[in-house]
Each structure stands twice: as structure tokens, then as C-alpha cells.
């Protein structure tokens, strides 16, 4: 008899719930009241259903609170990375060029670090900044590419909740760090061209170390808050991330709460970091251009601009796909998903691959050391 009574209670509550939903209220206040009634009714009958032997499918459909016991509703155990939506049949083959670029990035940046560390003549500000850039490139590519290759090759799409948040932290912290390193390299070129006689006294090893520490600590301090905010938010049952790695905006779309504060802070961090760095880079190169145009000979002007060519190429390779990804997440609703995901992957892979190649080809000291190491000759 008690079971029949409980069945009737559940049925009555569900009928009332259906009627309330069918009303389709138009006021926000009434809508919130209905949602509160439905939520409380779900809690009520789920508590009673635990004492009744009902089929498992009935519980699965009508008792979501029971299915999300503990922290599984607010903090899912894992997320699912889709890889490259739209290229499901080609993902296996797309992974090969990604793997090749990752290998080039790792080998190239380790080679640059080894050459700078073992050659005392390269312990100068420009090469120390280049070593910082190589470190950020290694961390940035290694934090995403192994998992991405596992997703594309072996369909290992599941990533744990905490691992996803850690990956998100490393991506954004070291992206900010790389932007800061590019900004300090622009300052280095400005001092070298506009103040050549004071170069050694201004950019001492201590100053270089402090600049590197500031840009890295800035990234850690700016990025940490929105990672902690995301970690404390409740997530919806849907836990699919439609790309190859955990990025802030992609993870934020899975949150079942008001994310305006987090979105606003993320936008503030992006604009303050990238905006400030681009402003410093732009001002530095305006001053460099003024100085170069004032040089008396054409050869001197070309030589001065040649020292900046590598840095300009690296800046373009880093900021163009990065800015496209940033704006596509927030405003690009009509951007094809496959294009967005591909550029997001290339944003974290192409700069780490190109940086050692560009500086290896354009910088004579590094180029000579590489040729000497490969050929056993002193060119």
C-alpha cells in the first residue's frame, strides 16, 4: 500500500511539473519560481524513490539528482575532447603533420637552448630572451600536443577534470608569457638600434633576468584567478569539448551557471596582456623605424632592419592566429567549426615550430653552430 501511495505522489508531482512547464511563463520572476518548484519536487520524489524498488530506467530519466551523487554533477570526473569536428574521417592522417611539426618544435627549441647554454659568447640579452622564448614554446607545445595526438590517433578522448584545468592554466599562462617575451625582445631591438652605445649598460644580465621574471609572473598571476573560478563552478551533464585541448572559453561553455564575471575577467586579461604588449611593440618599432630612416647609408638601413626581420616574423606567426582564435570564440558564431579548431591547434604549434627555424636561419652565430655540429666543420 505504501508503495502505491508513493507512486501516486510521484505521478501527481510530475503532472503538476508538466502543467507548469506548458504554461511557458513570460516573466523572469515567475519563471524562477517554477524552476524552484520543479527542483524541490525532484528532490522530494527522488528521496522517496530511493526507498522503492523501481526500474533503473525510470530512475535514469526522472531522478537526475540521484545520478549525480557526490560531486559528479558540479565537478564531472572527466571531459570528452572531440578532436577536429568535421574531419572525423581524416583525423588519423591530419595528426601526422601535427606530429612532424611538434617534433621539429621540440628538437629545434632544445637545440637553441643547448647552443645558447654552451656558448659563452651568446650570453647576451638578445640570446637570453631567445632562450626564454624557447622555454615558453616547449611548455606551450608539450602541454597540448601529446594529448591531441592521442585523441586523433588512438581516440583517447577522455581527459580528467583536474587535468583539463591544469592544461588550461598552462596554455593561457605560457601564452601570456610568450607575448611578454616578444614584447621584451622588441625593447631589446629598440635599445640596440636607438641607443647602441648604452646597450650593455641598460640591458645587463640582472635587468634581463628581472624582465623575464616579470613577464612570467604576470602570466601566472593574471591567469590563476579565472582558472580557480572555473574550478569552483558547477558543470552541466554535457561534458563534450568540441576541440583538441582544454581552452578557457571552450570549458566555460560547459558551465551551468552565470559566467559573465568569468567571461569579463578573461576578456580583461586578454586585452590587458595582449593590448599592453602590442602597444609596447608598436611604439618600439615606430621609434626603430624613425632611427633607421635617419641613417645616412642604404646599407646601414638594411642591416638595421635585417636585425628586426626575424622578430617581426615571429610576432606575426604568434599574434595573427591567436587573435583570430580569441575573437572567433567570442564573436565568430558563423565561423566554420573546423576552421576555428584548426587555427586554434596551429596557434599553439606553428610559433614553437617556426621560432627556432627563423632565428636559426637569420642569426649567424646560431646558424654556424648548427652547421658545425651537423657537418663537423667550421664554416
Could you give me the name of the CATH homologous superfamily of the largest domain?
Rhodopsin 7-helix transmembrane proteins
* Tally of separate domains: 2
Shape: globular
The end-to-end distance, rounded to whole angstroms, is: 96 Å
Strand content: under 5%
Computed over alpha carbons, the radius of gyration is 27 Å
Sheet having the most strands: 3 strands, mixed
At CATH level 3, the topology of the largest domain is Rhopdopsin 7-helix transmembrane proteins
In helices, the fraction of residues equals: over 70%
What are the secondary-structure elements, in order, as H or E?
A: HHHHEHHHEHHHEHHHHHH
- Work out the number of β strands: 3
- Give the CATH architecture of the largest domain: Up-down Bundle
CATH class of the largest domain equals Mainly Alpha
Q: Indicate the mean pLDDT.
A: 80
Count the helices. How many?
A: 16
Q: Uncertain spans, ≥5 residues at pLDDT below 50?
A: 1-11, 13-73
Q: How is the largest sheet built, in terms of strand order?
A: 2-1-3
Structural class: mainly alpha
Précis, in short:
Helix content is 75%, strand content 2%. The chain has 379 residues and is mostly helical.
Describe this structure in words.
The protein has 379 residues and is mainly alpha-helical. The chain folds into two domains: 66 residues; 298 residues, Rhodopsin 7-helix transmembrane proteins (Rhopdopsin 7-helix transmembrane proteins). 75% of the residues lie in helices and 2% in strands. The protein has 16 helices and three strands. It has a three-stranded mixed beta sheet with strand order 2-1-3. Keywords: Cell membrane, G-protein coupled receptor, Membrane, Olfaction, Receptor, Sensory transduction, Transducer, Transmembrane, Transmembrane helix. Pfam families: 7tm_4. GO terms for molecular function: G protein-coupled receptor activity; olfactory receptor activity. It is found in: Cell membrane; Membrane.
Amino acid at each position: 500500500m505504501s508503495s502505491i501511495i508513493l507512486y501516486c505522489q510521484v505521478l501527481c508531482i510530475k503532472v503538476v511539473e508538466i502543467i507548469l512547464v506548458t504554461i511557458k511563463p513570460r516573466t523572469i520572476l515567475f519563471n524562477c519560481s517554477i524552476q524552484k518548484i520543479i527542483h524541490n519536487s525532484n528532490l522530494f520524489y527522488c528521496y522517496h524513490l530511493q526507498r522503492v524498488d523501481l526500474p533503473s530506467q525510470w530512475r535514469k530519466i526522472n531522478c537526475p539528482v540521484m545520478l549525480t551523487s557526490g560531486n559528479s554533477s558540479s565537478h564531472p570526473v572527466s571531459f570528452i575532447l572531440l578532436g577536429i569536428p568535421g574531419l572525423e574521417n581524416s583525423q588519423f592522417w591530419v595528426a601526422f603533420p601535427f606530429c612532424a611539426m611538434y617534433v621539429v618544435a621540440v628538437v629545434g627549441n632544445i637545440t637553441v637552448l643547448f647552443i645558447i647554454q654552451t656558448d659563452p659568447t651568446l650570453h647576451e640579452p638578445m640570446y637570453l630572451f631567445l632562450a626564454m622564448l624557447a622555454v615558453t614554446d616547449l611548455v606551450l607545445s608539450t602541454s597540448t600536443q601529446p594529448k591531441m595526438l592521442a585523441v586523433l590517433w588512438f581516440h583517447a578522448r577522455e581527459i580528467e577534470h583536474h587535468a583539463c584545468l591544469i592544461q588550461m592554466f598552462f596554455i593561457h599562462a605560457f601564452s601570456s608569457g610568450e607575448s611578454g617575451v616578444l614584447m621584451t625582445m622588441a625593447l631589446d631591438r629598440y635599445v640596440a638600434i636607438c641607443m647602441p652605445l648604452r646597450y650593455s649598460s641598460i640591458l645587463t644580465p640582472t635587468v634581463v633576468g628581472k624582465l623575464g621574471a616579470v613577464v612570467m609572473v604576470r602570466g601566472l598571476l593574471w591567469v590563476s584567478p579565472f582558472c580557480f573560478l572555473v574550478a569552483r563552478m558547477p558543470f552541466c551533464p554535457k561534458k563534450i569539448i568540441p576541440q583538441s585541448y582544454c581552452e578557457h572559453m571552450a570549458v566555460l561553455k560547459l558551465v551551468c551557471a552565470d559566467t559573465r564575471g568569468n567571461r569579463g575577467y578573461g576578456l580583461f586579461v586578454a586585452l590587458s596582456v595582449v593590448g599592453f604588449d602590442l602597444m609596447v611593440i608598436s611604439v618600439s618599432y615606430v621609434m626603430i623605424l624613425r632611427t633607421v630612416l635617419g641613417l645616412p647609408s642604404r646599407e646601414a638601413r638594411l642591416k638595421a632592419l635585417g636585425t628586426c626581420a626575424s622578430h617581426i616574423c615571429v610576432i606575426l606567426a604568434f599574434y595573427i592566429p591567436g587573435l583570430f582564435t580569441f575573437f572567433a570564440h567570442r564573436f565568430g558564431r558563423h565561423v566554420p567549426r573546423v576552421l576555428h579548431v584548426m587555427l586554434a591547434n596551429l596557434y599553439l604549434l606553428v610559433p614553437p615550430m617556426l621560432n627556432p627555424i627563423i632565428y636559426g636561419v637569420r642569426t649567424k652565430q646560431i646558424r654556424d653552430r648548427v652547421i658545425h655540429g651537423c657537418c663537423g666543420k667550421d664554416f
